[in-house]
Amino acid sequence: MTDQRGPGRPRSEAARQAVLNAAMLDLDEHGYAALTMQGIAARAGVGKQTVYRWWSSKADVVLEALIERAEKIVVAPDAGTLEADLDAFLTATFREHGLRRVLTGLMAQALLDPEFAVAFRDRFLFSRRAALRQILDRAAARGEIPGDVDRELLIDMVYGLLWYRLMLDHAPLGEPVGRQLTGLLLRAVSAPPPGTGAASKPSGPMS
């Protein structure tokens, strides 16, 4: 379900923040499956009906909390070079923020609830892609990325790695992964396409 609030009293900002914080704390301690609207309300010190008045499901509460957290801890820097911007953005993206349970829980919910899947994609996933696209677009404008480089594919490479490791938990996340990925992307955009450049030239005179 998506966040469809009906008419009623305006939300108290203090109560809203209490609910969002309570949801994240409960989720971190008990996991997404054990999270309930009643538990969130009790921890936040508000009535359950107050929570339902503002959000239609626990997934909507967690999504709003996640969006606010992501906007604070993973911003699109503008340090003037692609290398500096990618390093700052990707180390922040891959840093362990205690959000693994949040992200995997919401992804699982999105697979079960098509309506929520649209909200998760449009409000969170696409906004994260847009932040990275902004970095790549600025680099292209500075001439650091060739104009024919597929920037959407680069973005898929970044978030494909992130989600693959989140879901399988077979390899670590963390800042070193972000830095390693920065180096790989920089080499990828600076390498000549296959079949061009020095690598394609004959090694000796033609006979």
From TrEMBL:
<dbReference type="GO" id="GO:0000976">
    <property type="term" value="F:transcription cis-regulatory region binding"/>
</dbReference>
<keyword id="KW-0804">Transcription</keyword>
<dbReference type="Pfam" id="PF16859">
    <property type="entry name" value="TetR_C_11"/>
</dbReference>
<dbReference type="InterPro" id="IPR011075">
    <property type="entry name" value="TetR_C"/>
</dbReference>
<dbReference type="InterPro" id="IPR009057">
    <property type="entry name" value="Homeodomain-like_sf"/>
</dbReference>
<feature type="domain" description="HTH tetR-type">
    <location>
        <begin position="13"/>
        <end position="73"/>
    </location>
</feature>
<keyword id="KW-0238">DNA-binding</keyword>
<feature type="DNA-binding region" description="H-T-H motif">
    <location>
        <begin position="36"/>
        <end position="55"/>
    </location>
</feature>
<dbReference type="GO" id="GO:0003700">
    <property type="term" value="F:DNA-binding transcription factor activity"/>
</dbReference>
<dbReference type="Pfam" id="PF00440">
    <property type="entry name" value="TetR_N"/>
</dbReference>
<dbReference type="InterPro" id="IPR050109">
    <property type="entry name" value="HTH-type_TetR-like_transc_reg"/>
</dbReference>
<keyword id="KW-0805">Transcription regulation</keyword>
<dbReference type="InterPro" id="IPR001647">
    <property type="entry name" value="HTH_TetR"/>
</dbReference>
<protein>
    <submittedName>
        <fullName>TetR/AcrR family transcriptional regulator</fullName>
    </submittedName>
</protein>
<dbReference type="InterPro" id="IPR036271">
    <property type="entry name" value="Tet_transcr_reg_TetR-rel_C_sf"/>
</dbReference>
